Amino acid sequence: MKVIHIPCLEDNYSYLVIDENTKQGAVVDPVEPEKVIGVAKENGVELKLVLTTHHHWDHAGGNEKIKELVPGIKVYGGSIDNVKGCTNKVENGDKLSLGADINILSLHTPCHTKGHISYYLTGKEEDDPAVFTGDTLFVAGCGKFFEGTAEQMHESLCVTLASLPKQTKVYCGHEYTVKNLQFAQTVEPENAKISQKLSWAQQQRQSGLPTIPSTIGEELEFNPFMRADLPEVQEKVGCKSPVEALRKIRELKDNWRGDEPGWSRI
């Protein structure tokens, strides 16, 4: 299983997932279809599937166009998320396949949108699994609670996604890592994992390189939203339960101005 990052718009990523035996591919959130198709052609890949995480235009906005450009392509999206261009609706636990070796599991991860789907992919035995989390889980962060509650985000992050194997690679929808880690330091200033990851992420961005993927194991070490179950994190934000702490951390993030423009978007 091979994954190629495709930078789109200002700070989005689409991803091309390739089954290397058959050269069949799936694309996650192809908001700029022509760019995605170009990358597929460069790699000799036949596009078969679109995996849409949620209905927001910067993720689903290219679906209709890619259907025109790649006749017969299947477009998957959450059954209750009103995804533009969707041909095949998926529920939590639905299974798909790509090529000879890739299995895809749909995970309902609501809150950012009510029908948000994350896609968990496994390939050959030697391949690390991967999860495409859209705007539910970012590296060191999570999406705003546009259509859901702290209870839902806790379930999505700390139960559903946290239960995946620790080595699972996390591919999220936006390049927000540096700002997320800067905020994470305000929650846990003494957490050395945050400082180390921030230093690395800043070097990556200065070199024009992505900070994605992380892993589920890493997120449990430095992502304050996924660490809301820990009593020491709850204490830091003056809360006594995981859901309370997660809600409070999101409120703090929503009001945090950070060091750079664009803080309010994430």
UniProtKB/TrEMBL annotation:
Domain Metallo-beta-lactamase residues, every copy: 11-174
EC top class, as a word: hydrolase
GO biological process: methylglyoxal catabolic process to D-lactate via S-lactoyl-glutathione
Organism: Helianthus annuus
MF terms (GO), sorted A to Z: hydroxyacylglutathione hydrolase activity; metal ion binding
Pathway: Secondary metabolite metabolism; methylglyoxal degradation; (R)-lactate from methylglyoxal: step 2/2
Essential cofactor(s): Zn(2+); Fe(2+); Fe(3+)
Keyword Methyltransferase annotated: no
InterPro entries membership: Clx_II_MBL, HAGH_C, Hydroxyacylglutathione_Hdrlase, Metallo-B-lactamas, RibonucZ/Hydroxyglut_hydro
Its EC number(s): 3.1.2.6
Catalyzed reactions: an S-(2-hydroxyacyl)glutathione + H2O = a 2-hydroxy carboxylate + glutathione + H(+)
Keyword Ribonucleoprotein: no
Classification lineage: Eukaryota, Viridiplantae, Streptophyta, Embryophyta, Tracheophyta
Similarity-based family: Belongs to the metallo-beta-lactamase superfamily. Glyoxalase II family.
Keywords: Hydrolase, Metal-binding, Zinc
Protein name as annotated: hydroxyacylglutathione hydrolase
